[in-house]
Structure formats: C-alpha cells, structure tokens
C-alpha cells in the first residue's frame, strides 16, 4: 500500500462516525438508514459519511434488485488487509529495534 493510500485511510477514519460505520459494516452489509440509526447520525450526515468512505474505496455499495433507490453497503476487505500489512511492517521494525536495545542493555549488564 502506497503512503498516500495509508494517509487517506487514516484521514478518512479520523472521524468517529466513519470508524463506527466501518465497525458496523465489519459485522455485515447494511443500508444507509440502518447505519444512520445505529450511529445516531441524520440521513444527510450519513450520506456524506458514506460518500467519503466510497470515494476512499473503503466500502462498496450495490442496488437492491427490487428497489433501485435502496443501496446496501459493504466493507471492502482489501484496504483493511493492506493497512494491516503496513502496520505489521511498522511493528516488525519496532520489534527489531527493541530486540537490539535489549541485547545492548544485556551486554552492558554483563560487562
């Protein structure tokens, strides 16, 4: 994942309502009205949040076959997996740094 994609991911999720939407969609697909009710957001506010999440490609939407006005939103797995991989790299770096520091301290103690 490119740095600008990671930046965008965290920028979009800086908003607590959008984080809550992502958590809710992690449990399964939902309609906008369900998400608005669960988060306490108004319909227009939820629409704005969903547009931002869609433009950042964190979620997808599909039309309900029987009613083209209704859409079901789903969390996209790919960006979450990519950010997890990025976080794993950061963690590996810090684990390596902490291991080197521990080794240094242990060597100093035995000297």
UniProtKB/TrEMBL annotation:
Residues 1-98 form the HTH arsR-type domain. The keyword Magnesium does not apply. Transmembrane segments: none annotated. Keywords: DNA-binding, Transcription, Transcription regulation. The keyword DNA-binding applies. It comes from the Bacteria. Pfam families: HTH_5 (PF01022). CDD domains: HTH_ARSR. NCBIfam families: HTH_metalloreg (NF033788). This is Metalloregulator ArsR/SmtB family transcription factor. It comes from Kribbella sancticallisti. The lineage of its organism: Bacteria, Bacillati, Actinomycetota, Actinomycetes, Propionibacteriales.
């Amino acid at each position: 994942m490119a740095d600008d994609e990671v930046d965008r991911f965290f920028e979009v999720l800086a908003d607590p309502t959008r984080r809550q939407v992502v958590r809710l969609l992690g449990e399964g697909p939902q309609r906008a009205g369900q998400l608005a009710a669960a988060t306490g957001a108004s319909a227009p506010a939820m629409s704005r949040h969903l547009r931002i999440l869609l433009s950042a490609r964190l979620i997808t939407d599909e039309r309900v076959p029987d009613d083209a006005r209704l859409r079901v939103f789903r969390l996209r797995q790919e960006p979450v997996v990519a950010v997890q991989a990025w976080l794993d790299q950061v963690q590996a770096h810090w684990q390596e740094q902490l291991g080197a520091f521990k080794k240094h301290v242990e060597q100093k103690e035995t000297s």
